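Q: Could you fold this chain for me?
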Amino acid sequence: MGKKHPLLITFEGGEGAGKSTLIEHLVNRFEKLDYAVAKTREPGGTLLGEQVRNLLLHQDKYPIGSISEILLFLTSRAQQIKEIIKPHLDSGHIVLCDRYNDSTVAYQGIARGVGKKLTQDLCSLACNYLEPDLTFVLDLDPKEGLKRTKKMDKDWDRLESLDLSFHEQVRAAYQQLAKEQPQRIVLIDASQPAEAVINQCWQAIERRLLIQA
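A: Sure. Below is the predicted structure, expressed as structure tokens.
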């Protein structure tokens, strides 16, 4: 069954920052130490969430308004919490989630101009005020991040395809959030070698596990 230690850890950052790779490495470390661990992503994770993900990121038949975009992201997240995150936390798992509310605040609330406070309020309502215990923001120059994404040889989604100034606003928004909530958010230099990023994150996780033990 693995060690029981409920913890919600979220991973944030711009395009190409390396969140998926980091999560895979951390899952392996947790499993080697016999922790009960689960991973998921936003938007997505559930059948409904994956349908919403496809609608949000991979369709270009019609425009999606800024408020509609937020509500679609939060539809996926509310279902994710109901089906995956909350049940796993209740059973003692460490849950690693690729994106969560900070993404919505950075991308839609700030970079899209919907409004930071309004977006935070909507996120809190949709998630029934479930906050992460720990959040890693992988900080990377958007030019480098988009260059990495281009090397992946895949079609860019709607958000990846936006202009550089948008991605620069997203980066600045994440940096702002990290300054405002240092007790939860750890800003990581994602331009470092992958092993250095992994080790810094793991050290922060070890400190949190000791605090909550």
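A (continued): Strands lie at 7-13, 37-41, 94-98, 134-139, 185-189.
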